[in-house]
């Protein structure tokens, strides 16, 4: 059975003291919820990883970086390797986020290298895919998402792919106040699972968790998570408040 997952992506928010406080609050909220069936992940800025890893109970919360380098080590000023991420106690890394693709020019070829580095360092990967508004309006959303899967991940063996969590981001719904309808989310998630079935077979497709990552919040989480192919959420802004984040986790536990 695939996992129910709620992952928070703090993005470039929170100073170190603020991040420590938020992690402590989230840890207490998750402990009080008592929902072992939901995997909770916190995706923090690099500077928080080591400290937050010490604060949270690893039995109920996993820690994720938001990115990693394409190379193992060397003269790459400002970069953070997958080995460095793993050394902090982090178990996951977010790769291919739409902001990395659009603001920093991350291509499929770059992501192939990052995926390889993450897997070589035993990190689980939250791999983001999704279309921008122009692609959705042109009716190319399925084509774009399939291409991102094929070019970013389909070089992996079935065993390697078992370490991938997918996050579908309708880019036009991130931070815009727009949200894909529950039906649109389910339609795309079902399509993604169909593509996975064609490549890796039904068992792997059914065991892959696919998260929704387009402005999921405490108000719409329940409706989104009621869909059979929406296995959880990659949460942005709502993950910065422990109360809101805990409401989303509770919503995931209901379905």
- Can you summarize the main beta sheet? 8 strands, parallel, barrel
Give the total of beta strands. Answer: 8
Multimer state: single chain
Average pLDDT confidence is 96
Structural class: alpha/beta
* Spatial strand arrangement across the major sheet: 1-2-3-4-5-6-7-8
Q: What percent of residues adopt helix (DSSP H or I)?
A: 40-55%
Q: Strand share of the residues?
A: 15-25%
Kindly, what is the distance between the CA atoms of the first and last residues, rounded to a whole number of angstroms? Answer: 14 Å
Given the structure, what is the number of helices? 12
In sequence order, what are the helices and strands, one letter per element?
Answer: EHEHEHEHHEHHHEHHEHEH
Radius of gyration: 17 Å
Spans of 5+ residues with little confidence (pLDDT < 50)?
A: none
Which term fits the overall shape? globular
Question: Mind explaining what this structure looks like?
Answer:
45% of the residues lie in helices and 15% in strands. The chain has helices at 16-33, 49-55, 82-87, 98-103, 108-120, 133-137, 141-152, 158-161, 182-200, 202-207, 221-225, 242-254, and strands at residues 4-9, 38-43, 61-65, 92-95, 124-129, 164-168, 210-212, 232-235. The protein has an 8-stranded parallel beta barrel, surrounded by 6 helices. The longest helix is centred in the last third of the chain and has 19 residues, at 182-200. The two termini are 14 Å apart.
């Amino acid at each position: 059975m695939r996992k129910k997952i709620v992952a928070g992506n703090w993005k470039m928010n929170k100073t170190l003291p603020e991040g420590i406080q938020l992690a402590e609050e989230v840890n207490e909220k998750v402990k009080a919820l008592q929902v072992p069936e939901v995997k909770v992940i916190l995706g923090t800025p690099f500077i928080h990883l080591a400290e937050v890893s010490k604060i949270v109970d690893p039995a109920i919360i996993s820690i994720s970086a938001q990115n990693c380098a394409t190379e193992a080590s060397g003269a790459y000023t400002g970069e953070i390797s997958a080995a460095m991420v793993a050394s902090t106690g982090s178990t996951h890394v977010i790769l291919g986020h739409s902001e990395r693709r659009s603001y920093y020019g991350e291509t499929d070829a770059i992501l192939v290298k990052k995926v390889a580095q993450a897997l070589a360092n035993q990190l689980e990967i939250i791999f983001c895919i999704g279309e921008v508004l122009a692609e959705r309006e042109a009716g190319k959303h399925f084509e774009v998402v399939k291409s991102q899967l094929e070019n970013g991940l389909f070089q992996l063996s079935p065993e390697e792919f078992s370490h991938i969590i997918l996050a579908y981001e309708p880019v036009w719904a991130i931070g815009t106040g727009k949200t894909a309808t529950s039906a649109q989310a389910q339609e795309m998630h079902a399509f993604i699972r169909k593509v996975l079935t064609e490549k890796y077979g039904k068992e792997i497709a059914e065991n892959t968790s696919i998260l929704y990552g387009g402005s999921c919040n405490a108000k719409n989480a329940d409706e989104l998570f009621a869909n059979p192919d929406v296995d959880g959420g990659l949460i942005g802004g709502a993950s910065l408040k422990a109360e809101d984040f805990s409401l989303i986790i509770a919503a995931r536990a209901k379905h």
